Amino acid sequence: MKRLDRITTDFTKKITEFYFDKLDEMVADKRIENLKSGKSTVVPLEEVFKKAKFDEKVLKEDFLNALSQVPDNEAFRNDKL
C-alpha cells in the first residue's frame, strides 16, 4: 500500500507540474501575441516603481539583505545589481 501511495503522489506531482507548465506557456504565448498585435505594451520597471511609489534603492537593499541569508550565494553578493 505504501508503494501505491508513493506512485500516486509522484504521478499527482508530475500531472500538477505539467498542468502549470502548460498554463504558463499558454499565458506567455497570449502575452506575446498581445504585444505583437499592439493590444498591450511593455512598461519599464522604473515607471512601475514610480507609479507604485516604491523606492528602488530600498528594494535593492532589502533584496541584498534577504540574499545574504541564503547559503552559498557569494557569486550573487559580489555581482553588481
Q: What's the structural blueprint in terms of helices and strands?
A:
Blueprint: H1 2-37, H2 45-52, H3 56-68, H4 74-78
Protein model, in words:
The chain folds into two domains: 1-40; 43-81, no CATH class. The protein is built from four helices and no strands. The chain has helices spanning 2-37, 45-52, 56-68, 74-78. It is flat. The model has no long low-confidence stretch (mean pLDDT 83).
Defining key terms:
mainly alpha, 0% strand, 4 helices, single chain
Number of helices: 4
Shape estimate: flat
Helix-strand makeup class: mainly alpha
Helix content: over 70%
Q: Give the strand tally.
A: 0
Radius of gyration from the alpha-carbon trace, in angstroms: 20 Å
Task: Look at the structure and give the mean pLDDT.
Answer: 83
Element order: H for helix, E for strand: HHHH
Cα distance, first to last residue?
A: 51 Å
Please indicate the percent range of residues in DSSP E strands (runs of 2 or more): under 5%
Q: Give a quick account of the main beta sheet: strands, pairing sense, barrel closure.
A: none
* Low-confidence blocks of residues: none
Q: What is the number of independent domains?
A: 2
Q: What is the structure about, briefly put?
A:
The protein has helices at 2-37, 45-52, 56-68, 74-78.
